[in-house]
Every structure is written in C-alpha cells, then in structure tokens.
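hi! just following up on the protien thing from before. the input was this:
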Amino acid sequence: MARKQTSAPAPGWTLAASILASSLAFVDGSVTNVALPAIKADLSASAEALQWVVNAYLLPLSALLLLGGAAGDRFGRRQVFLAGLVAFAFASLGCALAPGLEWLLAARVVQGASAAFLMPNSLALLGTAYSGAARGKAVGTWAAVGSVAPALGPLLGGWLIGAVGWRAIFLINLPLAAGAIALGWLKVREAGGEGKARLDLAGVAAATAALAALTWGLTVLGAAQPQVTQGLVAVAAGAALLALFLVTEWKRGSHAAMPLALFATRSFGGLTLLTFLLYGALAANFVLVPYVLIENHGYSPLQAGAALLPIPLVLAGSSRFMGGLAARIGPRWPLTIGPLVVAAGFALSARLSSDAPYLTTLLPALCVIAAGMALAVAPLTGAVMASVDSAHVGTANGFNSAIARTGGLIATALLGAVLAAQGDALDRAYAHAALAAALAAALAGIAALVMLKPSEVTGAK
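and the predicted 3d structure came back as:
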C-alpha cells in the first residue's frame, strides 16, 4: 500500500473516508446488541457467551487503540488506516460466515483489533488534511458522527435481522468498507512521511493481558452461578498485570503508549474517571435495553432498535447548541450537570416492566439520558485536549477513547446475571442494573465537580 505521496491533499475526501471508516467501527460496537437474542437461539449460546460476543470486540479495541495511533506515526497513518480497513472487512466476512460460536468470537477479536488501528488514524488524517478553524470543524463533524452512529446501530441492525438474519449485520460492512478503502486509496493524501516512533509492545501486551484477565474474572463473578475462586484469582492476576503495565510505562517515559505525564494535572485524572464511569453505564444500557425488550416484551429486533432512536435524535439536535454553551461557560459545569442528568434518566428507566407503556416509561427516560449525554459529549474532547500539554494532545485523545471502550468492556462483563434471567426476574434484574448505572453516572458528575479545575480544562493555563 505504501507509495510516494505527491498529490495535494483532498480535505473533503479525507473527511468522507474518515467518517465512513470510523462509522463502521462505532456501529459495530453497538449493532450486535439487538442481535444477541438471535445469536443466542441460532448458536445455542449461554449468557456468558453472549457477553463475549460484545467483549471480544471491545477488549482488543480498548487495549490496542494507543498502539494503533503509534503505528500510524511509525509506518504512516494512511497505510495503517487502509490496512485496518482491509482487516476489518475480512473479519466481518468471518463473522457472517461463522459456523459456530468459537469462530464468531475469533472473528470479533480481529474486528476489534482492526478497529483499533483504523479509528485513531482516521482522526489523525484529518489533522494533516485541515488546518486552523477548518480543522476544528472537521474534527467536530467526525466527533458528532461518532456520537450518533453507535445509537443508530441498533436500528439498522434490527431492520437487517428482521429482513435477512443476524449475519446480515456483518455482511453490510463489506460494501461500506470497500467504499472507504476506495476513497482512502484514491483520494486521501497524507502530508509528511513515516516517523521514527518506537512501538510500546511490552506496555500494550501488559495492558491487553490485564484487561483480558479482569474481564474474564468479572464475567465469572457476575454470572448467575458465580465461580468465586476462579473469578477472584483472575481479577487479582489482572490487577497485578495492570501494575506491571504502569511500571512498564514509567520506565519507557515519553516513549510509552500511555505516558504517565498525561496525569500531571488532577483534571486529566478526573476526566479519565468521568469517561470510564459514564461510558460504562451507557454501554450497559445499550446492551440491556434491546435485550430486555426482545426477550421479555415481545419486541422485534427492528422495534427494539427503534426504541433507542430518541438518543441519536436528541444528540443530533442539541449537540451544536450544547457545544456553544460549553465554549461560553467552560466545560466544568456541563461535565458535572450532564452526567447527573444521565443518572436521572437511568433511574427513570428502572420503571420498565412488561405492563408499563413505552411512551410513559422508557421513552422519557431515554430522552433524559440523551439530553445529559448531549450536554457532556460536546465539551469532553476539548477538556481532554486542554488538560494536557501540547505534546500529548493526540495521545490524550486516544487514551480517553480507550478508557471509554474499557468502561463498556468492564460494564458488559458484569451483566451475566441479568442476561441469564427470564420473565419477571429479568425485569427486576434490569431495574437493579439501571440503578447501578445511575449511580455510576452520578459519580461521574461528582468526579467532574471535585477534580476539574477551570484553568486546566479551558486552555487558560
């Protein structure tokens, strides 16, 4: 794929290719949620296995995002971007043709790893194609699609499952990936050549092993019939590997995948905690709501996907206003109030039951959740960038994105008992999970209030 770049950049084509490619990755993280009941029935999957249909994608995506960005710096962002797209397309085909659960999980791992390489480089390519105010607008457009696309995934997936079957949610990736590859190959140009950045393979290996052990341990502990000893051993091993990761990053200094210099300000730590808690709660909700509606309330996959439609609609309609508000008053209060509003929405959703009308229970809850997310999403990226020095802006954004996926990974690992429940017990288990999500979102808002310093998150250092 590597060839000398001589043509002038084509910013519009770069934006189109980046949005199309990253949308594939964003949507594939959520589209499977409405497919879980169909996969469960077709492949005779247990509740624990259903968790891994989601987490087999999130685990490599979370662990390899920083490596994907560093690989682009080392080998060329366009080359790594295209390689990630090609691998994602082949992995999607593998998911669609999976003869059994093991094959599906293996293909999902490759999908997640591929997404980890294409996502950070799709954003980085925008940085080389645009400059000044135009760059801000392009990144804002990319981020807006990234916020709305995961919420649209269940609607698209529900339609495809009803019309064709669950395998179609992966086959649809092929023409979209082909379009992104064609745009990337023919129209995208990257200013500058390959860098000399050294890849932090030891750090990434430790992080991947730590997340894998923690995820497996929490999955075992969160099951309907938990294996306590095995789970605790796995969690302890994950914690030890996480400590090894931190030691490795400290020794590598500025060459680390996660330079500890990122945490020089208290605000960056607060933003990290906020992101982990808020996006973990949101990911759990995106998994459970379609599942409960299909399994317990007689919804079709399309109806379950449409039930989540208020979230992308509210986000799309209010994000621009919320972004302007945050620019005027600073990000601290939006990042405090937004998660608290989300917490109220999760608490409202706990009223969901088989005899409760959608229009008076789930719909208002989802609208409140969406309003809170609209308030929080817009200022988060700017606050992350402002909370670190200029040399670490790109790494900080990549790390924050990885933390958001890690939050979803850990949250999904804790849902085993809910997914194993049936009938009224499933509604009760969902209510408990919704209240736990409300607590996590509220703690995210408190973290913003206590830990964010206005001088560190507005650029006025």
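The domain at 259-461 is CATH 1.20.1250.20 (Growth Hormone; Chain: A;).
Residues 1-7 have pLDDT under 50 and may be disordered.
cheers
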